[in-house]
Write a structure and sequence with these properties.
The complex is a heterodimer. By secondary structure, chain A is mainly α. Chain A is 71% helix and 3% strand. Chain B is mostly helical. The chains are: A mainly alpha, B mainly alpha. Chain A: This is ABC transporter permease.
Chain lengths: 310, 339
Amino acid sequence: MAVPGIPTVRETGSLQKMKRGGRSWDWRGWKFMLPFALVFIFVFIVPIVYAIWISFYQKRMVGGTVFVGLANYIRLMQDAQFWDSVRRVALFTVVQVPIMLFLAAAMALALDSMKLHGSRFFRISTFLPYAVPAVVSTLIWGFVYGAKYGLVGSINNVFGSDLNVLAPSVLLAAIGNIVTWEFTGYNMLIFYSSLSTIPHSLYEAASIDGASEWQIVRRIKLPELRGSLAITVIFSIIGSFQLFNEPSILQNMVPGNSVTTYYTPNMYAYNLSFSGNQSNYAAALAIVMAIITMSIAYVVQLRSMREQMK
Amino acid sequence: MSEMNREATTSMPMTNGRAATNTTARRSTTNRRARARQTAHDERLERRRAGKSGFSNPANPRRSMMLTLICGLFVAYCLFPFVYLLVNATKTQADFTSTFGLGFGHGFALWDNLQTVFTYQDGIFGRWLVNTLLYVVVGAGGATLLAIMGGYALAKFRFPGRNAVFVVVIGAISVPGIALAVPQFLLFAKLGLTNTPWAMIIPSLISPFGLYLMWIFSDQAVPTELLEAARVDGAGEFRTFWQVSLPLLAPGIVTTSLFTIVATWNNYFLPLIMLKDSSWYPLTIGLNQWKDQASTAGGQAIQNLVITGSLVTIIPLVIAFLLLQRYWQSGLAAGAVKE
């Protein structure tokens, strides 16, 4: 099994020693890493490189595909629709992510306090929305929101009110509600898992020392949450910058044209490449968005996440 | 799981006498339930005693009705769409548009709706269900296997390029789906793979989150000494992996497969761009197409079928999550707590 020329563990001792010795490389891990790596290269690396490549070209009516250098990127920088969509997801991120994570952390603390009646029921029912596909949750909420035949419509009939949660001014909040519903439980569970690893002797010691419950929460539990906060913040930011499913499914459930073809960057790129036949421009857009997302994620907390993983 | 342990340990000191005789006298598995009942009983006593003395044990506090009610509001918010879905799946199309959203219709049409869902358009919904199962079994199954092996490699071997793998995978998570999907589509189109099941399956094989979970899990669940012992006994790397490591990884594997299954079952974007032929659609795209039918000119509105179809779509996953609770909770706990 061992690769020729590479000493086995028996000859060199523990793994640590081998690494420190630095005489030879331990290639055995690649036997297990290789399948993932190969598929990963095929579905991630090659498409990314390909996207970078085509973003320097343009399809022309005359002359076919020509190399245009940075022209696509320059056009993107001046594209008001693109920046409009970026502003929209940025606003969405700044408002929705804190609300969702606050709810998730509060619920996790409540569950962990063991003060709830029936905590198993609480845990499973708050997590359940995660099992629902975005399509289905958007459909349900879309029907609920509907002013004609939906629940909002029924409420308007009964009370004679004129609510419309799909009006352009509140549409983004309506979408935020769907996303919050889908992912709060998931984040709650990550928080809850990290809380449940705190040794309980710590609480007992604290209470013997006369700490109140709020002090235990503030001094023991909240610091423990910080580690998992890094992961949840990054995944949430990435998720909301990629917002696509909810607005695009809502598109024809919303009266009028409130959900434009450039409502979010992802929708803009999708419409550019699949109905506008501008894949080169869409590729440039996708790359710029990737860079924006990655730098925000990095600035926010990637560093702490890396430390955590070492 | 963790809660059970916690409750068991916290109530121990109060009940040493009885608990000790219990454990020594009867060890059979059937008595585990009796012991849990005993623990619950002791807990109640402890809570009452704590209530009288005014001193509350923070590791086993008194339950609060107030907090339960406040959290109950949030649970109501989480469960309300499920109720809406269930109620409206029992209505006919006419009742759906005319009766109150959270009240029942004039008749009970659930069975009719279910039957229509599976027979409408020559039973194409059944085809979508089979497609989804295919994508889940091959795609999510493969993704889990690759994640197990990769995570195990990252946790238990210090191979050259290990750090690079980490950086690249984390970087890849933050690449927007569309950045990949457009060139993936163009690439797959060149290879003649679009509009075939492969276009759906191959990209589903990679789950960076699954890799992360299995990495953390292997790190904690598989002791390095055990691996070295197996190697000293002359077992090859793959044999060690199958016979020593895999059994230890079981809870993590259940967790990872649940997450890859959810990701594949719920995927909307990938099939949306890759598949044009409705006979290869998964459930998500199919449902959306039925929903769109109402807004096309002359299209028949079939919201009752969309609602009932949605219910059918989520039931398998909801059941899986309920049955496998213990596994994914402990698995996720391991994933979230890497120090």
